[in-house]
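Ligand-bound model needed. pyridoxal-5'-phosphate.
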Amino acid sequence: MLSKRQLFLDNVAQTSDIPLSLEISHASGIYIYDQEGKRYHDLNSGIAVSSLGHCHPAVVDAITEQAQRYMHTMVYGEHIQTPQVAFAELLISQLDDRYESVYYLMSGTEATELAMKMLKRQTGRYEIVAARNAYHGSTQGAESLRSDEDYKAPFLPLLPGIHHIDFNNFEDLQQITERTAGVIIEAVQGEAGVILPAEGYLQAVRERCEEVGALMVIDEIQSGFGRTGHLFAHQKYGVLPDILLIGKAMGGGMPIAGVVSSRELMRCLVKNPMLGHITTFGGHPISCAAAHATLKTLVDTRLYEEALAKEAYIRERLQHPIIKEVRSSGLMMAVEITKLKYLKHIVAKAHELGALVDWFIFNNRSFRLAPPLIITMEQLETACDILLSAMDYAEVKYKR
Ligand SMILES: Cc1ncc(COP(=O)(O)O)c(C=O)c1O
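Prediction:
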């Protein structure tokens, strides 16, 4: 009989020749367990998703209750479903008054797609400005925003009219012009290796957009729902975009994403043309119930505020000669290593010692730390010990 690993390799499509292939048995809190019963500290949260840890009781209860009540009843936006209404009301109560309406989707990349359509529809322009080394998703519109030309080459033609600026370069903002429909930008660049916005940068983007009549979209798909120590990173950095993209941690482990804006802006989907964006499963009641439980837990406990103390603790503990720099915004962190050759050995050794850390798409000198926000100080201490041991190992073994 073929092993499960072989069946996985044979029958489940892969996107790399070196999949992690960790055979999952179950997951709870900050831990993932493999089939042999080995326990791993999940220091990635499935890339900034499991912020309340795995199988948080409030989320599991909400899913179970909703599954017994109803699942799918009608495509998006026709029926009144309590979980959609409840989440939207709670989310909007946590945001600035200008945000009044949520369009639900299933994934971050769809949120990007919808925002791109809204920019065109609202301004009558088609040019979009994005930052280099940003990642906004893997569908063709979102991929058009990617700056890596080699990667995009096999998928051409993608969308015309996309211009790239360097994140944090104030002069580049002159490339936002009267032809620009909008700027799509992360508040903290995630896949570039956690690049924080320079003082005043996001405000300067906002001002330039206003000068030329372009709209500003902030992609908080990775930075949202408490990851940076504030409920949303745009609140932390003091900027109010026209459109907000959310996803990942939103559903507490269930697939859901959203576009948030004023009611007036969202109305562009209703006329010219009607049904400006439609989806069968966007805003699925079970995902919305999970999202509501997740956000309610975050708001009630203010768990995200603890991320700042946890960030400080990690920064203090992670001292090692082969660390070049730690960049962080709350528990969205990148640890940059002095030499490229150490990195893969650190990741592999940490794995062996029971901690999961990960790479970034556009930064091969750093590893990612994005532990669940529920991680305790004791668990962090153990996690840091593992990472330091992995660095000791890489340094000694691969020095030459
Ligand atoms: C900032 C950002 N935007 C968009 C996406 C795409 O989200 P999804 O994978 O849910 O399509 C990601 C995913 O990593 C992301 O980090």
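The chain has two domains: 4-55+303-397, 57-301.
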